[in-house]
Each structure stands twice: as C-alpha cells, then as structure tokens.
Amino acid sequence: MAYTTIDDPSAYFQTALWSGDGSTNNAITNDGNSNLQPDFVWIKKRTNADDHILANTSSGATKYLISNTTGTEQTYSGNVKSFDSNGFTVGDGNQINQGSNTFVGWQWKANGGNRTTFSASGNQLAGGYQANTTAGFSIVDYTGNATNGATFPHGLGATPTIAIIKDRTNAGDGGGTNWIVAYTIVDGSTDRVYLNGTNAHYDLPDGSTEFRADFDSNNVTLGTWNNINASGTHIAYVFTPIQGYSKFGRYTGNNNADGPFVYTGFKPAWVMIKNADASEIWRIFDDKRDTYNVMEKGLYPNLNNAEGSGTARLDFLSNGFKLRDSGNALNDGGANLIYMAFAESPFVSSKGVPTTAR
Fold first, then answer.
1. Could you report the per-residue pLDDT of 194-216, keeping only the tens digit for each?
2. I need a labelling partner for 157 at 20 to 30 A (CA). Which of 276, 290, 291, 307 fits?
3. Beta partners for 236?
4. Residues in CB range of 35: below 8 A, 6 or more apart
5. Is 0.85 topped by the overall pTM?
C-alpha cells in the first residue's frame, strides 16, 4: 500500500496570514508549493476579539456563518469578496480586514464551486454537494424536512468519520441553532458536540428518531433534530480521512506536561482539539502562526477571543503531535480528546521520501 496519495497537501489545504489594511479589496495570496483556490475559508482576527467568519463557494462569497454563535447565515459584501486562483480577496469588514490587526485564514479545496445537485425523492432531501474524493472533503447544502431517516448524499465514495453541520436559515431558540459536530472517532458510534459551545459529547442513541446522524459511503442519515434537519437550508462540511493528508481521531489524556504522542502519519499543518468528555473550550493550532516548537498560540472556535499564548502547549512532529500541557482542555487525565488534523507534508511520500522534523 502506498504511503500516501497526496504528496503535496498544500494543493488541498493551506493557512494564510495577513495584516488588515481596511481597504475594499485586499487580495490574500497563498504561499504553498501548489496554488490553491479554496472552496471553504475560515477566518479569524488574531490581535483582538472578533467573530470567526466561515464562507464557502456553494453558498457564495458574500454569505457567511459565525462558528462562535448560533446565528443564521448573513450576507455582507465587505467580508469575503471572491475565491481566487491562489487565495481569496477580502473587503473592508472589521472582522477580516480591519487596519492595525492581524488575521489568519484556513482554507480547504472541494470542487471549485461545481455542485452536483440532487432532488427530494423518497428519504432523500434536496440540495447539492461538491466533493473532492482525493482530499476526502465535501461541502453539502440541503433542505431539511424534520423527518427521521432523511438522507443527503455527500459524494465522497467512502464513509465519513466527521461532519460539521449548521442550520443556515432558522432563528431557533435564542436567535439561532447550534453548530453540530457529529463524529464516529471514539468508539464507532455517532456522538456529537457543539462547535459553538463547550459541552461534553452527547451519544446519539442507535435507532434514535431525533438525534440521529449516521454515516455510510453514500449518505448521511438524519433524525428529526432541528439543529440538523429543521425545514430550511443547512450546510454540512463532511470529512473522511486520507492517509498522509488528514486524520480525525481521539487520544486519552494523562494530565501531565509530558503528554501523549498522537500519531497522524504526517507532519501537521493544522490541528483542532476538543475534550469530548468535559465542558472545555476548543483549540486550533497551525504551523503558520507557530513556526517552531513548543507551540502555544491557540484560537478558539467557540469564542471570539483574540489569539491566546502560553496557556496551551503542544509540538508538531514529523509524524504527529505531542501534548506539552497538563490542562483539562488538551490533556484531561483519562478523558477522550477528539481532534481533526491536516498535513503540511506526509511522513513518507509516495516515492518513499521521509519528511523532516521542525
């Protein structure tokens, strides 16, 4: 079996950093080995508190959602203005281009905005997907119907292990609905946590008619839960792991500064972690904001906080990452910590060439 099918992960995922200039057209250009025209961009102001801005090519550049709130999809031409051949262009929105502030943008490639549409038929909902089977990533938009057993195709041709789902249109209780992260990476059954919250995991019971979110190689099957299947439109970011490029898994914390080593099979470029067993915040690390070990510059998907430093620590290694922190958010003793990780480079290329450590 080949070590990897992706020798250059920068063709499918990149991180960009920039300084805001307050202009109406600030072109952000990637610097990876390959050009990357993104289909999903996640932006966060680093120097001051402000919302996370998430945009994609299926919804359209001027549409966005905020990961740290339950709010519905908004439209603003001053945020992401276009998805470009090697990056994206932002406008004068304070959340993404305010002068005297620094920003980060994480980017994934799907299918260049080209959707495969599907119609409501039987259990299948109506909508569309743009899938990148090479990178194991699909963006799906669908219209819910609040019916148990409703399905939507994801186009990956492999069973996903994690999906991030958000209702785009319904106000719900308190002005919105939660971001649902449904995953099978702990024990094979489907659990969920809120991306916009700190809650511990909630098991989705087998046979549930409400909280259901089941994965197979063709579809995601939903229950009646309003967060993921209310009448109205939803967006789903669906992932299946690709050897040498992405991994979605779990590790057990030990509450020690000499924390566990987590094997990924690649040198990470980006890691997001959540304690699934306790009420703790999410954290994101990447190789552009932290260019050497020990890494300690965290951002928090469920909070609008500025970039934190010194409060959480880990190392990016040639074949995984190692915890250097004893805190409960990253290394709670005996707890299941779940993570998503994407590669800077595979541990060993398809030609047998090993990567170097930092």
1. 999 999 998 766 666 788 889 99
2. 276
3. 140, 165
4. 11, 85, 86
5. yes
